[in-house]
Amino acid sequence: MTRRQSDAQPGFMRAVLIGSLLALVSTSSQGASPVALSPATMARLGAVDARFQSYNIEMVEVTGGFFWRPYRDQGKAVAPSNAGDIPPGMDSAMYAYRAPIDLAQARLRRLAAALGPAYLRVSGTWANSTYFDDADAPVSRPPPGFKGVLTRRQWQGVIGFARAVDAKLVTSFAIGDGVRDARGVWTPTQAERLIDATRALGGEIAAAEFMNEPDLPALGGAPRFYDAASFGRDVAVFRSFLERASAKTILLGPGSIGAETVSNDMLDSKDLLKAAGDAFDVVSYHHYGGISPRCSHATLSAAARDRQALSEDRLSGADRAQSFYAPLRDALAPGKPLWITETADAACGGNPWDSTFLDSFRYLDLLGRMARRGVEVVMHNTLAASDYGLLDERDFTPRPDYWAALLWRRLMGTTVLEAGAPLVRGLHLYAHCLRGRPGGVALLAINLDRTTAQSLELPMPAVRYMLTADHLTDARIRLNGRALALGADDGLPPLDGEAVAAGGIELPPATIVFLATTDVENPACR
Fold first, then answer.
1. Is-cis flag, bond preceding 223, omega within 30?
2. What is the pTM of this model?
3. Least packed by Cβ within 10 Å: which of 176, 277, 440, 517?
């Protein structure tokens, strides 16, 4: 159109502009064309462990000690600089003292049991330097070479808790100067005490890592100059000991946190695995999406925080970590399962928004991603400590991630299916056989877009479970419009779905939707 035509037709130009704006608004509110899904023909991708969705209780929670200070307590009195169980080189202001967790507390047990069956991992950085005291009269302070003390009574509490909530116990052992001989070689003196006591107390260690995060030896309390060769030597001693002392215990490893990037104070996970040879029954690793502001000292605006938390790049970090470890496993330990034994949104206690609905998108997306990529177990850190806990550590009130975990546990079975649609920007789809219903299929649809609705097309009726909140950073969420909260005597609310007819199903902006289809007779789910 020439300038003369434009000048002569201002009404036409206004109409074009208005029409374009209306089209933009319509697209924004309705999203793309519906994604057509066929649950009856979704093919089997693989399977996960029956205890796929699991969790950590840090060793320092059991013993009592200094752990990551919650953000709500920032500015309060800091830990003394001589607090013995603070990892070396770390700022004491990042920590707060916690009394030992009450593992007999009725609410805690009830809520954990609802997530069962699971693995309960009691480990963490502090476990590397914890002395197990099986005497009737516990020592008053850690012996030389240790920084914390685990009493027999505390360990008995762990065993009782695991039994009550249908959890199999996973742990690691002390590896510092206190358990080494004159040549600096690891000895099983402490590990043997812990295994013998576990058996005497009626428990069993289902799986064990030799140490927590061996690629961070200095932070983890390993001897000076500890390297991959030292790790390989120690793992060989540990493997031989474990076969004698607890032959049914699965050996996990290396349990490292490093992937593509290795800093100067880290050992390379490739070197650790090479040094260990074929010692491990399961290749284990840790994954965090980032480092919390406690350790990074980064500050983010609310808008930047939301963009980062729901960004495709951040969420796909779990894929990149798995893509690092899976080839290593294939080359160095072919055929061995992959487990993530520690994970959360951010290391160092979590981000400020990890106790809100915003993190539930990441949490469920991680479970879906890792299941379809062949990771058999994912252990969330933690059950009830600091900002990344599924439960508030003060009174064990469920956070949004807990409700998300509970829905996954109720609906998503162990057989992983091909959802029939690729992960696209803003809409992630995952499918499993429906738990407890032969032939049924469960779908998880995550709409990451905060402004645009998405839609699915199903050829059969379904039951919908939709999680929403007024704001992404709310600590309270709703299921199909009903607030989720504990009832009388800490009873769980009914997690009832809503029947939806065959056809189009809308996913409003920033929502998480589970769909259960019960009568599709998928051959992979019979």
1. no
2. 0.92
3. 277
